[in-house]
Write a sequence for this structure.
DNA sequence: GATTGAAAGAATGTCTGACAATCCTGTTGA
DNA sequence: TCAACAGGATTGTCAGACATTCTTTCAATC
C-alpha cells in the first residue's frame, strides 16, 4: 500500500459546514459591519439547530471574525482604522518573511504554479469580475505562504488576511488598484523566480504598503458616502 | 461623572469561565499531550452542561489549544519538534519587532513597571517555585507586548506562546536556564531603558534563540525518559 | 497462532424543548 | 422633557433524547 495514501475523507460535521458558510458570508460582505447576528434567524436560514449554530459562532469569535458580547450576542466587528493599520503592520511582518523564505525554498513545480496563479490574476485584473480578482489574488498568496516552509506563518497570515477581507475586496474594486497590484505581484514573482531574497522582500514590503494605502483610501471614500 | 469610569463589569458566562479554566488546566499540564478529553467526564468535573462545555471546546480548538477530530472528539495536541520550531520562529519574528517598537514607544511609567517585573523574575529565578518563574516571566513579556503600540501583535504573540506553554515551563525548570534567561531579559530591559532599538532587537533575538535551544534540549531529555 | 468478522459498549453529533436572566423599546406618568 | 416602567425580544443555560460513529472484545476461520 502506498505509504501516503490518505483516502480517509474527514467527515464534515454540521458545525464545520456552518463555520465555512458563515465565514464565506462574512467575506462576501453579506453582513453589514456592526450589525448584530440573531441566532434564531440564522438557525432558520441555515437550517440547523441552535446548539450547532452556537458552537460555530464560538469558533468564529475565537478567530476574531465576529464579536460576541455576553447577553447581547454576536455581531460583525466594525474595525477602526487603527485596528486595520495594526493588522496591516503585522501582515507586512509575516508576509515579507514568508516571501523571503519562499524565494529560497520554493520548488520549480511550485514556482510554475505561482506563475500560473499570477497569470490568472492578470486575466482577472483586466476583467470586471471583482470576486475573481480577490480569489485569484488569494491563490497567489496562498502558494507563497504554503511554500515558505513554516505552516504557523501560513496559518496566522491566513487568519489576519481574513479579518480585513472586506477592505481588500473594496480596495481591489477601486479604479487602478488591480493594475497596480498586478505590477507589484509581478515584481514579487520575478524576484522569487530569480531566487533573489532581498529583492523579493523589498517587493513584498512595497506591495503591502501600497495595499494598506489603497485600503485607507477606500475607507476614506466609504466614510464620505 | 468621570468620563472613562468603566464600572460596567462584563458579565462572566459559564462558557467563558470554562474556557479560562480549561486553558489554565492545559497550561498547567493537567492533561497529558495526546490524551483525549471526554465530554461527559469534563461536564461532571466542571459542573456544567454538555452544550456549554462544547461551546468552550470549540473556542479552544479555534485557538489551537486542543484538537477536535469529528466523531473522535477533543484531545490535547502532541506537538512535534517541527511544529514547535515553526512556532518559535514566528514568535521570534513578532517578539523582536515588539521589543524594537517598545523601545521607542514605552512610557517612563511603563518602563518602571517593566523593571519591577524583571526584579520579580529575578527573585523567582533564584527560588524553586517553577510556577512563579513562568508567571513572572510572562508578566515581563506582557508589559513589553502591551507597550509595542500594536494590539494585534500582542494578541497573536499571546496565542503563540500559549501553544508552547508546556515546553516553556519544562525548559524553565531546567538547571541553569532560569539564570540564563534572567541575564538575557536584563539585556533586553536595559536596551529598552536606553531606547536603543537595535540593541533591544538583538537582545530579543538572542533571547528567543536561547529559549528555543533550551526547549529542544528539554524535549530531547523528555524523549529519553 | 494470526487474521478476520461481528457484536457490544462508549462517545460524539445533533436536535427539541424549556426557562431564567438580560437587554432593548416604546409607553406612561410626573 | 425626562424618568420610570412594562413588555417583548434575545441570549445563556440546562436536561434529555437518539442516531451515528468509533473502539474494543471475543469468537470463528484460515
Amino acid at each position: 500500500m502506498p505509504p501516503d495514501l490518505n483516502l480517509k475523507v474527514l467527515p464534515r460535521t454540521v458545525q464545520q459546514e456552518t463555520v465555512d458558510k458563515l465565514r464565506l458570508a462574512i467575506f462576501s460582505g453579506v453582513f453589514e459591519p456592526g450589525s448584530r447576528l440573531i441566532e434564531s434567524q440564522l438557525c432558520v436560514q441555515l437550517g440547523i439547530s441552535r446548539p450547532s449554530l452556537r458552537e460555530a459562532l464560538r469558533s468564529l469569535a475565537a478567530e476574531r471574525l465576529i464579536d460576541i458580547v455576553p447577553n447581547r450576542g454576536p455581531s460583525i466587528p466594525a474595525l477602526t482604522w487603527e485596528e486595520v493599520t495594526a493588522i496591516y503592520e503585522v501582515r507586512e511582518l509575516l508576509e515579507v518573511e514568508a516571501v523571503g523564505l519562499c524565494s529560497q525554498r520554493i520548488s520549480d513545480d511550485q514556482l510554475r504554479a505561482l506563475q500560473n496563479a499570477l497569470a490568472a490574476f492578470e486575466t482577472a485584473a483586466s476583467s470586471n469580475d471583482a470576486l475573481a480578482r480577490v480569489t485569484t489574488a488569494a491563490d497567489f498568496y496562498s502558494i507563497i505562504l504554503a511554500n515558505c516552509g513554516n505552516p504557523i506563518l501560513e496559518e496566522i497570515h491566513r487568519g489576519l488576511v481574513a479579518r480585513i477581507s472586506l477592505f481588500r475586496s473594496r480596495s481591489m474594486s477601486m479604479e487602478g488598484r488591480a493594475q497596480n497590484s498586478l505590477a507589484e505581484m509581478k515584481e514579487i514573482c520575478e524576484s522569487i523566480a530569480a531566487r533573489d531574497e532581498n529583492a523579493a522582500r523589498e517587493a513584498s514590503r512595497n506591495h503591502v504598503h501600497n495595499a494598506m494605502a489603497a485600503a485607507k483610501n477606500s475607507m476614506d471614500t466609504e466614510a464620505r458616502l
Q: What stands out?
A: The two ends of chain A are 62 Å apart (CA to CA).
